[in-house]
Amino acid sequence: RSKRRGRAQITVYSQEIAQEMKRATQIEQALRNAIIADQVDVHFQPIVDLRSDTVVGFEALARWCDADLGYVSPSIFVPLAEERGFIEQLAETLLRKAAQAALSWPKELFLSFNLSSAQLMDPATSSRLLSIINQVGLDPRRLELEITETAVMADADVAQKIVSELRAAGVRVSLDDFGTGQSSLGRLRDFSFDKVKIDRAFVSRISADRASEHIIKAIVSMCEGLELEVVAEGIEDFAEALKLKALGCGMGQGYFYGKPADAVATMRYLSDRYRDSAASR
Ligand code: C2E
Ligand code: MG
Ligand code: MG
Ligand code: MG
């Protein structure tokens, strides 16, 4: 009897897998078309210096809404583009758009762009990225690249080479989602980073549990010693912002300071801020 049920379950699972594969292929086709039709967009979320409460840069975040599929999250379609071998095309169109938008911002603001793990395994990545921003005309010193520990671990030698080539050109590199995944503190010693981004998981629990507070405190102090900037991700309210400031965290990002917004809304956000600061001078 249990055998029969087992077989029934296997049938259900394989149907589910077939469904999922069908959907993945559907997303793949739609995304490939969207890239060609220039329908993948990029939004920008402010990164703030917590010491002065001023915007210092923006993180570019991919956005895509398909007519049939609706909104698809980048945490779905970025890995899919990697698996199906067209991350390069996706990344190129995103970086081009993001860099283009950054040209209109005040020059002191940086653009932070996420690199996927597949990009960090391809030795051609650094020259490719540099040639894109060179074509657009963005100063490489205004570009920052976010990479994750998991991505670094896939092929550490190649990743290290890519990172050092980019840094030699003036690009800064930050370690994203720090504290999640298979964290290795040795990575911070062997790799040259400029910044560490503390994962939202710690920030969102900072008011609720003391453990998260202690972990953030330790990360901040370690980064001070290593001369790395620290950014807290996912700050959602004033209380969290105050706590992070008190813990000595230098930079922050999250809905409290601004949600990701398109290029036009980002310019509006900036012009409001700069008008205010000009008026108070
Ligand atoms: P990430 O790089 O860690 O980006 C931060 C994510 O947290 C973004 O989600 C952002 O919208 C969200 N977020 C920011 N502040 C808050 C907050 O206060 N509360 C909450 N609940 N969430 C907040 P998003 O845009 O859905 O992106 C998810 C992930 O997809 C990113 O994580 C990144 O790993 C990846 N991704 C997004 N755009 C790109 C891209 O252009 N290239 C690559 N390779 N990956 C990308
Ligand atoms: Mg990021
Ligand atoms: Mg992150
Ligand atoms: Mg993340």
Automatic annotation (TrEMBL):
Highest taxon listed in the record's lineage: Bacteria
Q: Which residues form the signal peptide?
A: none
Domain named EAL is located at 24-274
Q: Where would you find the membrane-spanning parts of this chain?
A: none
GO MF entry, a single one: cyclic-guanylate-specific phosphodiesterase activity
Q: What is this protein called?
A: EAL domain-containing protein
Q: Which organism is it from?
A: Sinorhizobium terangae
Taxonomic lineage: Bacteria, Pseudomonadati, Pseudomonadota, Alphaproteobacteria, Hyphomicrobiales
Full protein segment contained here: 168 to 448 of 448
